[in-house]
Specification:
Blueprint lengths: L1 H12 L8 H8 L4 H20 L2 H28 L8 E3 L1 H15 L4 H21 L4 H6 L3 H9 L1 E2 L4 E3 L6 H15 L3 H24 L16 H6 L8 H19 L4 H11 L1 H23 L26 H28 L9
Length: 366
């Protein structure tokens, strides 16, 4: 969640998404772990939630309601938070919360299947979707220009699904990630020693498969090579996120799964702060984008008053080019990120306390 804030501050800082220098490249690359972790751990949370209630029907109904709520938030509050304008008819975005919402709606059906079926289906989607994309390569334009072109973009290809609707996160392969995460919930319920060994084995195995497939350009992403745009190691790590390739998911989920036992054992003040955010992740998400946007406006009024109007554009994908002199330095980007996280810590601590004291239904959706 903190890494996510770095990337969203970067958007309003007019810092490019990567670059040929190490600092620019890593500023973007390190945030690639966010979406895979969200989808995977959301699946695991669904499993754990269902185990506590032991009622598949109630779980499906909860997923339908929760998923629909997330889709609604993406298209209303979050769209406004990104843009600070009300021109909804000319720009709508299907972002990560949209994707998580639709995946939850689909999981309302998948949770009725055996756990093994979810694991098999999820892995099949993750592993095979790049092959299907290659198979459709010749007919891609025909598919996208057909009457169902908008649906193909929502399901897999992404991009403009209409004149004013842009799909950043398609459903595939993320539904596969969530289904695999749901199956992984079984691992989280094992005894600690066995669970830790499996996390290390699965995580290390995913990293090893990524390294082999990527190095020899066997399958799972576009070929890589060092060149004018940066050194070879950057090209090696620069995998496709939209839609997320097999290698992108191996590169990000492998370390995430391997790190789970280490994160569980973390102690101290920093770990306590991070745990506070984890208690109320949706509350954090709904606040962090407008807070970053407000802070960007304040900084612009101090640094580049004439450029402040740019911050009312159609972020994060379709703002006009940043005015000359507006772009922030990386030190300012990270300073603002630290300030955002610090402010949100106190807000999240208050809200977590409120949720623990009150069991209102509406609080469970934030």
């Amino acid at each position: 969640m903190v890494l996510m804030a770095i990337d969203h501050v970067r958007v309003f800082a007019a810092v490019p998404a990567g670059g040929a220098t190490t600092d620019l490249f890593l500023t973007r690359w390190v945030t690639n772990f966010c979406a895979p972790a969200f989808a995977f751990l959301a699946g695991a949370s669904i499993y754990l939630y269902g185990q506590k209630r032991n009622d598949p029907g109630a779980l499906s109904r909860w997923l339908l309601m929760r998923g629909a709520w997330l889709v609604l938030l993406e298209l209303t509050w979050l769209r406004l938070a990104w843009t600070f304008n009300f021109d909804y008819t000319h720009y709508m975005l299907a972002g990560v919360i949209w994707m998580l919402g639709w995946c939850m709606i689909l999981m309302a059906l998948l949770v009725r299947l055996p756990l093994a079926a979810n694991a098999a289906l999820g892995l099949l989607i993750i592993v095979c979707h790049n092959g299907l994309a290659n198979a459709f390569a010749g007919s891609r334009q025909a598919l996208l220009q057909s009457d169902l072109g908008w649906l193909w973009r929502i399901l897999y290809f992404g991009g403009a699904a209409g004149p004013n609707f842009f799909v950043l996160y398609s459903i595939v392969p993320w539904i596969g990630v969530m289904a695999v995460g749901y199956s992984f919930g079984l691992v989280l319920r094992m005894d600690p020693q066995r669970r830790d060994h499996l996390c290390y084995a699965i995580g290390a195995g995913a990293i090893a498969v990524f390294a082999v497939l990527r190095y020899f350009t066997i399958y799972g992403d576009w070929p890589w090579a060092g060149g004018e745009d940066g050194p070879a190691w950057m090209a090696f790590l620069n995998t496709s996120k939209y839609p997320a390739s097999l290698l992108f998911l191996l590169m990000t989920l492998g370390p995430t799964i391997a790190a789970l036992p280490l994160l569980e054992r973390s102690r101290g003040l920093l770990a306590k702060w991070m745990e506070t955010f984890g208690h109320v992740p949706m509350f954090y998400y709904l606040l962090h984008i407008p807070l970053i946007h407000i802070m960007a406006l304040g900084i612009s009024l101090l640094r580049t008053p004439s450029a402040t109007g740019w911050l009312f554009g159609n972020f994060p994908l379709r703002p006009s080019p940043a005015p000359a002199g507006y772009r922030w330095s990386l030190w300012l980007l990270y300073l603002v990120t630290a300030a955002v996280v610090a402010i949100l810590y106190f807000a999240c601590r208050w809200f977590a306390g409120l949720k623990s004291r009150r069991k209102s239904l509406w609080l469970s959706y934030l």
